[in-house]
Amino acid sequence: MSGNLRSYVVWSITDGRPGHLQQIRGLIKALGKQLPIREIELRAESAARALGYLATGRFPPGEHHPAPDLIIGAGHATHLNILAARRARGGKTVVLMKPSLPRRLFDLCLIPQHDGVAPARNVILTHGALNTMERSSAADPHVGLILLGGLSRHYQWRDAEILEAVGKLATDTPDVHWTLTTSPRTPASLLAALGALPMTNLQVVPFQQTTQGWLSSVLGRAGQVWVTPDSVSMVYEALTSGAGVGVFDLPRRHSSRVVRGLERLVQSGWVTRFRNWQPGQSLPQLASELDEAARCAKWIRQFWYPNS
To answer: pTM for the complete prediction?
Structure first.
């Protein structure tokens, strides 16, 4: 980071949703390795207020902060706020995921490939949503992680099938210590049944008992990770960590973009379906590093701040 040593001011506009915050945190973390930055986090106002700010050229949430070099947001609720902030104070805009407004209104859109958007001058297509994970050098093949989602509009959730798969996985890999965690969408009925499984190499940690940073820490030590197919963001976090990744089998509800995106990962050999896995078979790891947040941050530095 030679040359210009000033800090670049980054306004991150958030809607408070954990998944969207995770994406912003991933890009901010990666940007911090490319540029000296100062982040200012602002909460998105309602669409009606943001539209009023855009019309008047004012953005009160940022009035007492330094003008931004970058304005970053994730989630539909942030889009009008991003545009209003740029009109009021300047700066380049970066929107994460497919925006609800025309893409030409933003300086840069970082959009997962499975959203089906065509490449463009201001569009970078990414493998999944951005996240905070980095490739781990401490992964242990005898440490495994199981990530359960739950009810979703993409897959039919079936407690019995997931319970059977988890039990078989733990039984067939006695040399692996498995940590299983859940999500807010995991049915309570399944959690109770998991607690009754007799395997001594399986530890169940409900999401309510986890703390901030716990998942990243465990994921960084895991050599192999199994995920339910509804949790596509977790699939990409696991791939980014460098672990071998498998997905449990659940019937799809319809051929959605999420379902098709996961199928492409299976076809490319990036992930293994549980029905295709054999006891004693190691889950393949990606040959090359996957770090989409770093790739996007490098692009921003190269094309917007080449002298920094």
So the answer is: 0.91
